[in-house]
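To: structure subgroup
Subject: Chain for Friday's discussion

All,

I'm putting the inputs and outputs inline so they're searchable in the archive.
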Amino acid sequence: MIPIKDSPTTRRFPLVNLTLILINILIFFRQLTLTEDELHGFIFSHGLIPANLTAGFFEGNPAVVLTPLLAYQFMHGGWLHIGSNMLYLWVFGDNIEDRLGHLKYLLFYLLMGIISGLAQVAFDPGSNTPIIGASGAVAGILGAYLVSCPRARVLALVPIFIVFTVAELPAVVFLGFWFLLQLFQGVASIGVDVSIAWWAHIAGFIGGMTLVAFFGKHNNCN
């Protein structure tokens, strides 16, 4: 399902949310200017590589641990990857920024990315495959949205066989289906070499649901 817009209104201009989207897009366009070898080096230098993070942790090297946990969140592997992440962030992120405030929202977003990355590392600590993308941080926003905007509705493109139809769905249905899909894919990926960090999505979503209340106790979405 592809979200188009949601029902809650916001009171704050989503400055941080729009800035995050812009930064992700600018970095992606920067990636497009690189040669294949340069892009390979860029991803392996700044992406989150579980084996490197694990080694850095046991060696007590905080730079090796913290830097990729932040940098990997702003890199993407293709148009579909960045397009889907930024669309979800555009639709759902402004409401969480409205609830938490600008600074707390930024901290919350980055923390969700860190938690997601650590979860994927814990699942496969010896992997040498770089993890990149905002998916984990965005998943945290979706989890926060689920508990913050329980009565919201989402206008979405819904696939029915080979065609799409527009439907307005309760947010709990839309996001519940999204999470179940991630969980199914995560379980299916156990013991299989896959390119998508499903467990980062799962951990981010649960982290967002669990931790959003600690960042702000404002009223839920209208």
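Points worth raising on Friday:
The chain has a mean pLDDT of 89.
The domain at 2-215 is CATH 1.20.1540.10 (Rhomboid-like fold).

D.
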